[in-house]
Amino acid sequence: METLWSDFINSEWHDWKGSGRSEDRLEKLPWQSRFLSDWQLRAPVPAAVGDITAMRQLRKGLHALAVKLAGGEEMAGEDWRLLNQYMEPGRVYREFAPGDGGTVKLEYRPVAAEWEQVMAEVAASFGQTVLQGEAGRIRVCDNPDCRWIFYDDTRNRTKKYCDDKMCGNLMKVRRFRARKKAGQNPDGGAEA
Q1: pLDDT of residue 176
Q2: DSSP H/E element including 130
Q3: Among the four given CATH numbers 3.20.20.20, 1.10.3300.10, 2.40.400.10, 2.60.40.10, the one describing domain 4-156
C-alpha cells in the first residue's frame, strides 16, 4: 500500500536492477504534478529551489526514521520534534464534509497552497502511521539495490520486498544463480 509519506520518501529513486543509477525526482516537474494530483494537495509547480532544499531535508529525516522503525526501534523525543518542525507552518481549518452513505465527517483543509503545507501533510501522515500503532509495518525493501521504503499491509506482516514481481523475483533469481555458482543444485543440496 502506498502512503503519502512513502511516496514522498521514494522520490529518491534507485535502480532496483542493480545498475547503480539513481534519480532525485523532487526537482522534476512531472513528479511534482503527479504527487500533488495523487494526494490532492496544492502547491506551485515548479517548486522553488528553497522548497526543494527543504523537501530534501525532510525526505532525508523521514528516510532515517523509517529505517529506524523498520529495524524495530521506537520514535524518540527528537524524532517527534522533527515532525513537529515540519508540521508547524502547515495551518489548517476544519470543515464538515459529506462522507459515505449520507454521513458527515470532519476534515482538515490546508490554509495555504504551498510546499511548506505539503511537507506538513507528509510529516503528519508519517506521524499518524506511528500513532496508529502501525510503525511495525514500515519496511525497507530487502533488495539492496532498491532501498524503497514501503508500508506492509499484509495480514501476517512478513512482506520483504516493495514489489514481489520485480524485486522479489530478481532476488529469487540472484539466490538461484549464487547457489548454482557455489556448486549446489537449485533445490539446495550439493550436486553429484
Answers
A1: 61
A2: helix 115-131
A3: 1.10.3300.10
